[in-house]
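Bench notes, afternoon.
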Amino acid sequence: MEPLKEFSSTKLTLYNCVIPEDRLRNTPSSKDGMCHDTEIDLRMKGCECIQSAGLLLKLPQAAMATAQVLFHRFYYAKSFVKFNFYYTAMACLFLAAKIEENNKRLRDVLNVFHHLRQKRKGSSIVPMDYVGEEYYRMRNTVNKYERYVLKELGFCVHVQHPHKVSSNVTG
Protein backbone atom coordinates (compact mmCIF):
# COMPACT_ATOMS: atom_id res chain seq x y z
CA MET A 1 0.00 0.00 0.00
CA GLU A 2 1.27 3.43 -0.94
CA PRO A 3 2.03 5.72 2.01
CA LEU A 4 -0.53 8.41 2.68
CA LYS A 5 0.68 11.90 1.78
CA GLU A 6 -0.97 14.82 3.48
CA PHE A 7 -1.10 18.26 1.89
CA SER A 8 -2.82 20.74 4.13
CA SER A 9 -6.12 19.01 4.85
CA THR A 10 -6.28 17.13 1.53
CA LYS A 11 -5.20 13.50 1.57
CA LEU A 12 -4.05 12.21 -1.81
CA THR A 13 -3.78 8.49 -2.51
CA LEU A 14 -4.49 6.15 -5.36
CA TYR A 15 -7.37 4.75 -3.32
CA ASN A 16 -9.56 7.84 -3.14
CA CYS A 17 -10.01 8.47 -6.85
CA VAL A 18 -13.41 9.53 -8.14
CA ILE A 19 -14.06 6.56 -10.43
CA PRO A 20 -14.29 3.14 -8.74
CA GLU A 21 -11.63 0.62 -9.72
CA ASP A 22 -14.12 -1.82 -11.27
CA ARG A 23 -15.29 0.92 -13.69
CA LEU A 24 -11.68 1.72 -14.53
CA ARG A 25 -11.06 -1.90 -15.51
CA ASN A 26 -14.41 -2.78 -17.10
CA THR A 27 -14.97 0.15 -19.43
CA PRO A 28 -17.80 0.17 -21.97
CA SER A 29 -15.20 -0.01 -24.76
CA SER A 30 -13.69 -3.19 -23.32
CA LYS A 31 -17.17 -4.67 -23.03
CA ASP A 32 -17.61 -3.93 -26.75
CA GLY A 33 -14.46 -5.90 -27.54
CA MET A 34 -11.87 -3.13 -27.79
CA CYS A 35 -8.45 -4.09 -26.45
CA HIS A 36 -7.09 -2.08 -23.52
CA ASP A 37 -4.09 -0.71 -25.46
CA THR A 38 -6.31 0.63 -28.26
CA GLU A 39 -8.55 2.33 -25.72
CA ILE A 40 -5.57 3.95 -24.02
CA ASP A 41 -4.27 5.12 -27.42
CA LEU A 42 -7.64 6.68 -28.28
CA ARG A 43 -7.81 8.39 -24.89
CA MET A 44 -4.33 9.85 -25.40
CA LYS A 45 -5.07 10.87 -28.99
CA GLY A 46 -8.28 12.60 -27.90
CA CYS A 47 -6.44 14.52 -25.18
CA GLU A 48 -3.67 15.48 -27.61
CA CYS A 49 -6.27 16.80 -30.06
CA ILE A 50 -7.91 18.81 -27.29
CA GLN A 51 -4.57 20.22 -26.15
CA SER A 52 -3.41 21.16 -29.67
CA ALA A 53 -6.74 22.72 -30.59
CA GLY A 54 -6.90 24.61 -27.30
CA LEU A 55 -3.48 26.11 -27.91
CA LEU A 56 -4.45 27.23 -31.41
CA LEU A 57 -7.68 28.71 -30.02
CA LYS A 58 -5.64 30.47 -27.31
CA LEU A 59 -7.68 28.94 -24.51
CA PRO A 60 -6.31 28.89 -20.96
CA GLN A 61 -4.91 25.60 -19.68
CA ALA A 62 -7.84 25.25 -17.28
CA ALA A 63 -10.27 25.06 -20.22
CA MET A 64 -8.17 22.40 -21.96
CA ALA A 65 -7.85 20.40 -18.73
CA THR A 66 -11.62 20.63 -18.19
CA ALA A 67 -12.21 19.36 -21.73
CA GLN A 68 -9.88 16.41 -21.14
CA VAL A 69 -11.62 15.52 -17.87
CA LEU A 70 -15.02 15.65 -19.59
CA PHE A 71 -13.63 13.49 -22.41
CA HIS A 72 -12.42 10.82 -19.96
CA ARG A 73 -15.61 10.91 -17.87
CA PHE A 74 -17.70 10.44 -21.00
CA TYR A 75 -15.71 7.39 -22.13
CA TYR A 76 -16.01 5.74 -18.71
CA ALA A 77 -19.74 5.70 -19.41
CA LYS A 78 -19.83 5.24 -23.20
CA SER A 79 -17.83 3.19 -25.68
CA PHE A 80 -15.25 4.34 -28.20
CA VAL A 81 -16.82 1.76 -30.50
CA LYS A 82 -20.15 3.60 -30.51
CA PHE A 83 -19.02 7.25 -30.23
CA ASN A 84 -16.38 8.81 -32.47
CA PHE A 85 -13.54 10.15 -30.32
CA TYR A 86 -12.81 13.01 -32.74
CA TYR A 87 -16.30 14.51 -32.46
CA THR A 88 -16.33 13.89 -28.72
CA ALA A 89 -13.04 15.78 -28.37
CA MET A 90 -14.46 18.71 -30.35
CA ALA A 91 -17.64 18.75 -28.28
CA CYS A 92 -15.75 18.54 -24.99
CA LEU A 93 -13.46 21.43 -25.93
CA PHE A 94 -16.39 23.55 -27.11
CA LEU A 95 -18.28 22.79 -23.88
CA ALA A 96 -15.24 23.35 -21.65
CA ALA A 97 -14.63 26.77 -23.20
CA LYS A 98 -18.17 27.70 -22.16
CA ILE A 99 -17.75 26.23 -18.67
CA GLU A 100 -14.49 28.11 -18.08
CA GLU A 101 -16.07 31.29 -19.47
CA ASN A 102 -13.78 31.53 -22.48
CA ASN A 103 -16.43 31.06 -25.17
CA LYS A 104 -15.26 30.26 -28.66
CA ARG A 105 -17.49 30.14 -31.69
CA LEU A 106 -18.26 26.63 -32.87
CA ARG A 107 -17.03 27.69 -36.31
CA ASP A 108 -13.59 28.44 -34.83
CA VAL A 109 -13.44 25.10 -33.03
CA LEU A 110 -14.41 23.24 -36.21
CA ASN A 111 -11.89 25.18 -38.26
CA VAL A 112 -9.04 24.40 -35.85
CA PHE A 113 -9.86 20.68 -35.71
CA HIS A 114 -10.18 20.65 -39.51
CA HIS A 115 -6.75 22.29 -39.75
CA LEU A 116 -5.21 19.79 -37.31
CA ARG A 117 -6.69 16.85 -39.21
CA GLN A 118 -5.28 18.11 -42.52
CA LYS A 119 -1.89 18.65 -40.90
CA ARG A 120 -1.90 15.17 -39.35
CA LYS A 121 -2.79 13.58 -42.71
CA GLY A 122 -0.02 15.55 -44.40
CA SER A 123 -2.39 17.02 -46.97
CA SER A 124 -2.32 20.62 -48.11
CA ILE A 125 -4.02 23.04 -45.74
CA VAL A 126 -7.29 24.22 -47.26
CA PRO A 127 -9.64 26.45 -45.26
CA MET A 128 -13.04 25.03 -44.45
CA ASP A 129 -15.89 26.08 -46.70
CA TYR A 130 -18.42 27.64 -44.31
CA VAL A 131 -21.31 27.20 -46.72
CA GLY A 132 -20.35 23.65 -47.72
CA GLU A 133 -21.92 20.35 -46.82
CA GLU A 134 -18.97 19.20 -44.68
CA TYR A 135 -19.18 22.27 -42.42
CA TYR A 136 -22.91 21.81 -41.76
CA ARG A 137 -22.48 18.08 -41.16
CA MET A 138 -19.62 18.67 -38.69
CA ARG A 139 -21.49 21.51 -36.95
CA ASN A 140 -24.61 19.39 -36.47
CA THR A 141 -22.59 16.38 -35.32
CA VAL A 142 -20.63 18.39 -32.73
CA ASN A 143 -23.86 19.94 -31.42
CA LYS A 144 -25.32 16.45 -31.11
CA TYR A 145 -22.19 15.16 -29.34
CA GLU A 146 -22.25 18.11 -26.94
CA ARG A 147 -25.78 17.06 -25.95
CA TYR A 148 -24.60 13.42 -25.59
CA VAL A 149 -21.81 14.50 -23.23
CA LEU A 150 -24.11 16.72 -21.17
CA LYS A 151 -26.79 14.04 -20.95
CA GLU A 152 -24.36 11.27 -20.04
CA LEU A 153 -22.70 13.36 -17.35
CA GLY A 154 -26.09 14.42 -16.02
CA PHE A 155 -25.17 18.05 -16.68
CA CYS A 156 -22.63 17.71 -13.84
CA VAL A 157 -19.72 19.32 -15.64
CA HIS A 158 -17.98 21.07 -12.75
CA VAL A 159 -14.31 20.14 -12.60
CA GLN A 160 -12.04 21.04 -9.73
CA HIS A 161 -8.45 20.99 -10.96
CA PRO A 162 -5.63 20.12 -8.58
CA HIS A 163 -3.30 22.69 -10.14
CA LYS A 164 -5.76 25.44 -9.20
CA VAL A 165 -5.66 24.26 -5.59
CA SER A 166 -1.85 23.98 -5.54
CA SER A 167 -1.41 27.42 -7.14
CA ASN A 168 -3.69 28.91 -4.47
CA VAL A 169 -1.69 27.24 -1.71
CA THR A 170 1.74 28.19 -3.04
CA GLY A 171 1.04 31.65 -4.43
